[in-house]
Write a structure and sequence with these properties.
Largest sheet of chain A: 6 strands, parallel
Number of helices of chain A: 12
Oligomer: homodimer
CATH architecture of the largest domain in chain A: Alpha-Beta Complex
Strand order of the largest sheet of chain A: 3-2-1-4-5-6
Radius of gyration of chain A: 19 Å
Distance between the termini of chain A: 30 Å
Structural class of chain A: alpha/beta
Number of strands of chain A: 12
CATH class of the largest domain in chain A: Alpha Beta
Strand content of chain A: 15-25%
Shape of chain A: globular
Order of helices and strands of chain A: HEHEEEHEEHHHHHEEHHEEHEEH
Amino acid sequence: MTSPFKTIGDFLRQHDKFAVFAHIRPDGDAYGSTLALTLCLRAMGKDVLACNADGMIERYRFLPGADTLVATPVEAVEADRKIIALDTADQIRLGKVFHGWKRTPDVNIDHHISNAGYAPLNCIIPDVPATAEVLYELIRAENLPFNADIASNLFVGLSTDTGSFRHRQTTARSFEIAADLVRAGADPTDLAQQCYSSFTLGRLLLLREALNDTQFLDDGKISYFHLNNDVYTRTGTSSEDTEGLIESIQMVKTVEVAFMMEKTDEEFTRVSLRSRGKVDVQQIASHYGGGGHRLAAGIRSKLPLAELEAGVIADIRKALAA
Amino acid sequence: MTSPFKTIGDFLRQHDKFAVFAHIRPDGDAYGSTLALTLCLRAMGKDVLACNADGMIERYRFLPGADTLVATPVEAVEADRKIIALDTADQIRLGKVFHGWKRTPDVNIDHHISNAGYAPLNCIIPDVPATAEVLYELIRAENLPFNADIASNLFVGLSTDTGSFRHRQTTARSFEIAADLVRAGADPTDLAQQCYSSFTLGRLLLLREALNDTQFLDDGKISYFHLNNDVYTRTGTSSEDTEGLIESIQMVKTVEVAFMMEKTDEEFTRVSLRSRGKVDVQQIASHYGGGGHRLAAGIRSKLPLAELEAGVIADIRKALAA
């Protein structure tokens, strides 16, 4: 994939009205990237709609500009409002409401290797850890507005998608960028406290329930737990509170693949998978119509939970034996 | 405090035999700093004894050079072997065996604000997050040997003492240093996996026990749990496995102070305290002869557990009300 910063930069300068999107069930990189680009474009004097299928979840309300992000409007926006999709490997993940507009994004900026480039203008750099890192390079290469609020949003995107600079794909460049973001005014410890130490008590209880449910198979190579509405009710939490839970059971050194199964509606079962390195969980997810990265992937399937569970375990075993 | 890199650099160049130490109950910064300096001095052709009162614990055996670190020898070393204390605020924390030698360290390199400078040569920089960062600045300022193994040890010191670049005192400079260490050959994701994702199954069970015991007081401003020999036996763990446990209960946003109480012998009760920022836990620890930092401190006391627990809670309440 090419990374045509100049082309994207020109496009942003040439147009006046934008809508910035990211994927459903947004994480720190989705929100951080959306708000960083939104604030950057606004600083250029543009009229920007920042939205997401899920609106703004509580956990990321501390992000600068978060109060201006809205749930995706049901009505399609004006034809001259250019649409920018961020951090979204597959256009379908922009959400039902967006697809009701029957439009294709004009620009597609991402770091997911599975992103096939669904927009007329694509900027996909698959070997960087976060879309925020792609945006940082774009902003700096094109001399676009850059300030403490933009830096803070990019920092959160970079920090959360690297698991606080721990995961694969974190490079010397990622640390250099972090240093530059901090110099620009991002407060690393404040932001880290907001990202990683601002859980509700319910989230702690949810972790405890997850640990109590966790099973280890095959000498601890596979570990997993289940979540459902009962668990959420007992702990006063929701699906929004699951970020990082799976990493807690992945910390055991024997674990090659960790996953969690979530059953909260009649129709779908969700599976989130993490790999230590040997197993490509994106390949496993793809058997069930899912996607993601080599080391982190997800499935949303209509298969019955038990069948999906057995299938995923069988697939992991096959991959481990390969 | 001054940070006389030149003086320390000259001292290292002028002498031929060294013993490098850090504090008892060593953490990633203690081991990382000890091994980084040891490898650096050996690369200068020096004869270096790397030791610690606790020897090398399992959890940090992945560090380059770890196989050459020994438990502090009972016999005092030769008079011409210069002694370097790292990351040790109070000389007493070098351990009983060392004090049996009846010698004072020749060099004292540290980042603890409470370090009063107990050696003839002191290099204490209290506003940096890790002794590894002090050593990095010394090595670079004095052009001492620097390679992938040294960088990896420094990276682990910096990463673990900042909680993977999350805690207060992490600065743009810390990220710059991390970038330089990675360029020098430290693998950030491999090292992070070793530091944060290589727990035993027992450690996960220990976390579960800790969460089950955790109490929240005063609308969740105070949280704490207990550990003792029974818990360690049930989970197949030991005191070595507690690193990071307290941070798990500190992640709840209401929590201003989190602490854990550990009772594993007849004589002493240990308390580890963490603060979100409002409360200076070093002050609280100092009431009981303990020490540390403003946001992380520890106590080792002969008071009965219940009395110490009540006292610490009362002190935290007083500090919260101030």
